Amino acid sequence: MISVEHLTKRFGTKVAVDDLTLHVPAGELFAFLGPNGAGKTTTIKTLVGLLRPDAGRVLIAGHDIVREPIAAKAVISYIPDLPYLYDKLTGREFLEFVGRMYGLDPARRAEKIERLTERLELGEFLDDLCEQYSHGMKQRVVIAASLLHDPKALIVDEPMVGLDPKTARVVKDIFRELVQDSATVFMSTHTLSVAEELADRIGIIDRGRLVAVGTLDELKEQAGGRRGLEEMFLKITGREEGR
Amino acid sequence: MTSPLNLLIRLRLRCARHAVSDLRHHSVLKIVVITVMASGIWAFLYIMFRDGLSYLNREMFTGFKEVVVSVILSLFFFTLMVLLFFSNAIIAYGSLFRSQETAFLFARPVPDWQLYLYKLGETLLFSSWAFLFLALPMIVAYGVTQRAPWHYYPGAAVVFGAFALLPAVWGGIATLLVARIVSGSPRRVLATMAGVALFGASIWWLGILQAFNEGMRSSGEMWIQSVIGHLRMTENPLLPSRWAAAAVRDLAAGALGRAWRNTWLLLTNGLFFGMVGAYAARWLYATGYQRVQGRGGRHGRVRTNLPYRILERLLFGVNTQMRLLLVKDVKTFLRDPAQWSQGLLFFGLLAVYFSNLRNFSYNIGSLFWSNFISLMNICATSLTLSTFTCRFIFPLLSLEGRRFWILGLLPLSRRKLMYGKFWFALMGSFVISEGLMILSDVMLQVPPEGMLLHAGTVLMLCSGLSGLAVGLGAVYPNLREDNPAKIVSGFGGTLNLVLSMLYVAMTVALAAAPYHVSRMTDRLTHAEMMGRYIPGGLMLALGVSMAATFIPLWLGERAFARIES
Q1: Which end of chain B has the least Cβ crowding within 10 Å, N or C?
Q2: What is the pTM of this model?
Q3: Distance of residue B287 Cα from the nearest chain A Cα, in angstroms
């Protein structure tokens, strides 16, 4: 579903992502980990077409994000780390707008909005202007908007920031259900417990290079039998001595 | 399926409707004050233009009237066109390449050219309305003085709409090209282009002043011809500003056919270049956007901290926390070229003009002219200073908004935080404006007592303007906004602008005008002037300045203490 081939991205002289190759098949939840400044957000922004690769390419469901951006974007959804909403729209109007943007017919749109409103408990504030929302409320609306068109690939940057424990549980369940329905979830996070709990495979990026990728068991083996993901992460990224 | 562009336009209309209905929740006083202020500014401009145009209609200009009015209209539209082009280009850059909305929409299946047109429309409205608001009094005044038929007024509105289109689409295309082709920061490149244009315009303007000055020593006819000769380039038939000027002139004269032809010319060219822009966006927008996002690395590193360490040493008498705040604000200001470059441009132009004063021989001419020019210079410096405090100082506290938790957690009183901003504003503005005044005084050979008076006036002005900007900035903060331009355009910013202008007018009239006017008219003796009028004016100006400094700061301190973030 998501194919990254020899992706390199530079900012001036700094190489943010260095020759990254990665394939995430349909029906997999992939957790993308790395220390601050390792290149996670750059990779994600390149996956969704906000940044252009300096070398290599990104294919989403077979569509090159640079050459066929509209076809690729039609099947993905992106949840950024900082949720963007139109201040002068209500949450419902925002969801309507996104649904129409993806060409959902009115009945289906209404049904999906209704379902997501219930699931993410948006009802209490959905008809208020977005400028009045807290960070967590905004995040919930953005998550709902990202699920409206049943994306084949959901790309998420730090999904749990600002969510209360109950909503975080709901979001985790939604991610797992998407995967069961053969969608792909590509999730960058600093919350190692979330990765440990949800991910089918985990990739660790450090200084722009993919330094480890595999299932939790494979990573354990690679890290010399360390038990928790935190220990493995610190070992693989060479930050163990900093503890 | 509805096209994304259509959806986006409907979305914006929906947002606008909510914003309008939201007005109900604003205080009636606020809406009334804004309406009264806007009407006041509008009426002032109208009267000024009407009286100016009526003056030209008098008999002394018989034979020249048509030429002069035609040149004035062409110059007016030409200036407007250049300003609109740069304003559109700079705003389009922020809108097309830097806004959060663009990032959101770029990750959706929206064709690039539709996204471009949507953002360009937004830019056109955002950058053009203020110019059109300020230009409208001139157009109405022209219609009134020419006794234009009723259809002139709706017709002129159509001409304006068609005219605003071309600079906007050119600005959009320029932004696309700069973002795609230039390797440096596009905002910096566009700002440099605007700076170069402004500098060129100031050289051109100096030429006109020179002609004006030389002409005054010759006959009236020669004088007008000399000035008009310098302005002729604005009448080039290939310039859209000329088409707009001709359309307005023809409308006023009742020649509807000719007026319509020029309007059509504006409209078709605007639409044609709009299509060129949309076509260019297919190729340039996405790649330009990705280039802009992917830029960086080279400019982020700080080379030296030495100047700031020196500044910190120079502030040895100041309390440590206040000193740290001052240095932080100076660093923040100087490391943001978008901030200091605008200040540098305006004050730099004044400096160029002041350094050229001797070319006009004002210093060896009559006392009238040297005093008149000196008074005008202090007015120009003060008004530029007030623009500076309104644009850069007023938003300072609001800009702390998203970082308020940092300062909020420090063991530092809010009073200290606010006064830190005040001292930063006062010090910065005094160094710049006093430097300019000294330059002007030296060039005009102003006597020592005049220089001293100017220094005192400038100090009072810096204190009053800083107090107003910091105090009102604390009374009307916008802690959710990161864009200073938007903070300034709110109610508090508008109030600060109007009060600053009034304060400048009062202080200059009270502190500096008596000295210069008495020297210009020669009606008062030196003893009368020094013994009565000047001390009296200075005392009053001091009172006004203390009020302008301390009342807003006191109000700001109270309001700022209550802010929750």
Answers
A1: N
A2: 0.71
A3: 7
